[in-house]
Amino acid sequence: MSKRQRGQSQETAAAKASISERSGRRIEKGERQSIPEERHWRTREDPFEAIWKTELLPLLEKESQLSGLTLWEYLEDEHAGQFPYSVLRTLQRRVKQWKGTQGPDKVVIFRQSVPAGQQGLSDFSHPNTEITLQGKVFTHLLYQFRFAYSGWRYVQIEPPRVSWRLIGLS
């Protein structure tokens, strides 16, 4: 519209807007294509209406991993010839819709991607075993550094912030 207001031809303005000339004329006249409303009625009779709640739903509630094909094969065994192969896709859609709305919750996993050499973990800890030097308890910390990607570790003994001479070592 701004190109047309600047005096450019319909053909040029439409080309710059990446639309057809006809669409450009329609927009200029104020004619808009209406978006059809979402349909809330069925166009065909439901082939599974008679057995959905009585047979199929109890099977799904008991074993939620069942697929539409498995249920169709069950129907073929129990009601031979009553449900042709052409209704399989309808059953698959119905099973998918049930699993999405009333089925069991899915386990959600957020995978973490850690590139090599990008993340390290650093920690100080008190060891569980007591160490003595010349009969005196050696209180110390363990410092540990670990790469998240490879699991490579480095451990170092960190003595308390006192002089070695106080403990009796030279």
Can you offer a commentary on this structure?
With 170 residues, this protein is an alpha+beta fold. It has three domains: 1-35, no CATH class; 52-101, no CATH class; 120-167, no CATH class. The chain contains seven helices and five strands. The chain has helices spanning 2-5, 10-16, 21-29, 52-62, 68-78, 88-101, 164-167; strands at 120-125, 132-133, 136-137, 141-147, 153-158. It has a three-stranded antiparallel β-sheet with strand order 1-4-5, with no helix packed on it. The protein has a two-stranded antiparallel sheet with strand order 2-3. Helix 2 (10-16) crosses helix 3 (21-29) and helix 5 packs across helix 6. The radius of gyration is 36 Å and the shape is flat. The model is unreliable at 166-170 (pLDDT under 50).
Protein topology:
Layout (H helix, E strand, L loop, with lengths): L1 H4 L4 H7 L4 H9 L22 H11 L5 H11 L9 H14 L18 E6 L6 E2 L2 E2 L3 E7 L5 E6 L5 H4 L3
Antiparallel strand pairs: 1-4, 2-3, 4-5
Helix pairs in contact: 2-3, 5-6
